[in-house]
User: What shape does this take?
Amino acid sequence: MDSSNIEIKNRLLKRQINRHIKNNESLSAEHQALFQEIEETYAHYESDRALLERAMDLSSEELREQKEQIKKINDQLAAKNVQLQQSLDEVTKARTGKAATTIVLVVGLALFIVSETIDYELAILSKFPILILILMKFLIACLLKPIESGLESFMLKRAHRNAHLKPSII
Assistant: This one.
């Protein structure tokens, strides 16, 4: 006798019964009740497993969505960091340019004062050609911009080096 005379719907249990019980054996009502109870237990566990799988699928989907949101936020933060760094670089360049211009202005003013003193002394002591004196002032004026650019470049490099040496606060 096989398990088909009792109503077993679970395929795994049906296979197990057919494998272990000989066809010519007759099942008592107690055995049938036992197998029915076992089938109900199998059904309960399968239902629980299906419920857990559904919960895991939902949790996985939630985690995937949260991961995507975190990635978007990280991308936005990275873009903001780039913007912030560009802004800081612009401010540093502006401050450095302003400082370099101030230094060159003071140096240029000092050079013109010195050249005026030299011009005055040369004019009094000898008849120094005025064209050479004007060329000397023109040379000083022409050198101010390259001096400013070089000084600004030097100051920017120093500012960037100092910024990289400072510990970042995050």
Summary: Residues 3-165 form one domain.
